[in-house]
């Protein structure tokens, strides 16, 4: 299945390297990441419900969309992107960031063991608590994970701006994507570096996730430190020109 | 190893043709009764049943979970449960076992055993993760309730690999002792069978070394104590215990159940080596030698239940170990059992993912695990 697709690519996008869409181009910035797909390739849509709809139920736009898809080329779907009901894009991104050397199997198993560890710890707390508090204890590892990452996202960031020969740390608004990335990155570096040599990653990660869920712990502290630095350098805000 | 199992199997065939015939007829009658659906009395009863006595488990309880009181679990299974099941027990604060067809069949045979005949050997086999060890635990619980003496070896593979200290046996120069494993097993044996230890008296005099000896007529409890305190003689203590139990079970004072998990270890290779790096065959380990004598059915007054295990076995490919007999094949979950298992998890709120409660989610779980109980448990752990 991969071979005919590659041949099609080589035929139509011969020497032109595919670049990202023009909307992301900033003046003065060069594209660093490029893909082998050229601009007319569309992203794949993996959704069982969309494809299962019988022809009669489609609206005009959807019918047009389907006709268009018959002619346009579509990129290959990555193998980790499934139509399973249990799939979560945030978790997939986190697994990709944890992965080292392309060992997705190991990264995924670490993630599942972390979720299991979180669940077991919460169950223990649940059984130990009195019945009034039992309603407050959250046992779903997925909600804990999402809430913990949300608690770790910074609101404002710092960027180094060159003015008059010196670099100043200027407070700058961050996009959604950058915030999510920073939260996940901080979580992973924290768990990798600040742990006992014999402690395993799932154990440490589950501990950090539970602390972040309650707005405590080192990752949330790092976010607060960043906010404080931004507040301290408030006067430099007018160095930003975008 | 397969030759050994085949000879075991042929010996079973020769001695008990009656039971074999029953074995071929029983599945048909069980299959007929499977069509009767269980009535839905209350939400909990969909997956759990109130019948906590394994002696009263019938075909209509098939697929339902029954509760094991935690006190019983501590005495009867100090070392028998698989580690993931023990974790689940700790998380849910309760021990629930599912009643399944192979276990029901075995219970039926055990209830009708004739104790004058030599002990019958039953083998539970099946692919990895289907539930052989837990079915064995079900049987052991039943026998404990019926007041049998239980000789349970949780995993014979632990005795043939990763042993730190091997001593040359004092009793027989050619054999090797494993003091650690023997003493651990003796401690657990004591927890399980406390009340029998004072009742049974040994019938021979054994000399440990120049200064210590055990007289004829003293209780088995003393032998076990000696084994636990003197770790060097632990293996010999185990040998004495096995020999005495075998001899005395024929007399009819008590009934003996020998339950061995991972019995293919007794006839395979070991990873242990002598000091000159030459490998040791299992016959040369005293523990294994005594256990093999136990498993040969030249005694009467009880039963032997064995489980094959591929997980711990050494030097064997993944799909090995299938005896030719059909008795006791532990298969994957049937749809009814799968539903029951999912219901049990939902009742304990173990499946926290929102989508897991939907039909789509259940279908996906069934597909991903293919009805294999072990796989299903691992999948549900993080969902």
TrEMBL record, chain A:
GO terms for cellular component: mitochondrial inner membrane; mitochondrial small ribosomal subunit. CDD domains: uS7_Mitochondria_Mammalian. InterPro entries: Ribosomal_uS7, Ribosomal_uS7_dom, Ribosomal_uS7_dom_sf. It comes from the Eukaryota. SUPFAM superfamilies: Ribosomal protein S7. Residues 80-234 form the Small ribosomal subunit protein uS7 domain. Its main location: mitochondrion. One of its GO terms (biological process) is translation. Keywords: Mitochondrion, Ribonucleoprotein, Ribosomal protein, Transit peptide. It is found in: Mitochondrion. Gene3D superfamilies: Ribosomal protein S7 domain. Pfam families: Ribosomal_S7. Belongs to the universal ribosomal protein uS7 family. This is Small ribosomal subunit protein uS7m. The lineage of its organism: Eukaryota, Metazoa, Chordata, Craniata, Vertebrata.
UniProtKB/TrEMBL annotation, chain B:
Keywords: Mitochondrion, Ribonucleoprotein, Ribosomal protein, Transit peptide. InterPro entries: P-loop_NTPase, Ribosomal_mS29, Ribosomal_mS29_met. Belongs to the mitochondrion-specific ribosomal protein mS29 family. The keyword Heme does not apply. It comes from the Eukaryota. The keyword Ribosomal protein applies. The lineage of its organism: Eukaryota, Metazoa, Chordata, Craniata, Vertebrata. SUPFAM superfamilies: P-loop containing nucleoside triphosphate hydrolases. It comes from Pipistrellus kuhlii (Kuhl's pipistrelle). One of its GO terms (molecular function) is structural constituent of ribosome. Its main location: mitochondrion. GO terms for biological process: apoptotic process. GO terms for cellular component: mitochondrial small ribosomal subunit. This is Small ribosomal subunit protein mS29. It is found in: Mitochondrion.
